[in-house]
Amino acid sequence: MAYEIPVTQARAELADLINRVVYGAERVVVTRHGKPLVALVSAADLERLEALGDAATESAEEPMISSVSRVGSLPSAPGERQRFGIAAERRGPDVR
């Protein structure tokens, strides 16, 4: 659980908050009007968060790229061109 503190109080206690984060292994959420504004986390926590974000992004992109590549190479279903009013079709570079 993170320690919450209003931004006005956080300004006055910044040095103490930094010590709590670094040495006390706490996370501090600075609020404005009761709503979270920013969070203070240790550099080690930030590295872990960035690594998790990078891993999630990489694993999410690969399936999407391969599925989009597959969709681009599929032929249209019979009658779909007329149904959607498509007058032209894309042909690959080897088709003349």
Find the count of extended strands (DSSP E, 2+ residues).
3
Helix-strand pattern, N to C? EHHEEHH
What is the total domain count? 2
Structural class, judged by helices and strands? alpha+beta
Helix count equals 4
- Strand order of the main beta sheet, please? 1-2-3
For the biggest sheet, the summary is: 3 strands, mixed
At the third CATH level, what is the topology name of the largest domain? YefM-like fold
CATH C-level class of the largest domain is Alpha Beta
Level of helix content? Answer: 40-55%
Please state the CA-atom Rg, rounded to the nearest Å: 26 Å
Task: Give the distance, in angstroms, between the N- and C-terminal Cα atoms.
Answer: 64 Å
Q: Estimate the global geometry from the Cα principal axes.
A: elongated
Q: What fraction of the residues are assigned to beta strands by DSSP?
A: 15-25%
Low-confidence stretches: none
Q: Which CATH architecture of the largest domain is right?
A: 3-Layer(aba) Sandwich
The chain-level mean pLDDT equals 78
Task: Characterize the structure shown.
By secondary structure, the chain is α+β, with helices and mostly antiparallel strands. The chain folds into two domains: 3-41, YefM-like fold, CATH 3.40.1620; 42-73. Helix content is 53%, strand content 16%. It has four helices and three strands. It has helices at residues 7-12, 14-24, 43-72, 80-83, and strands spanning 3-6, 28-32, 35-40. Strands 1-2-3 form a three-stranded mixed beta sheet. The protein is elongated, with a radius of gyration of 26 Å. The protein starts with a strand and ends in a 13-residue tail after the last helix.
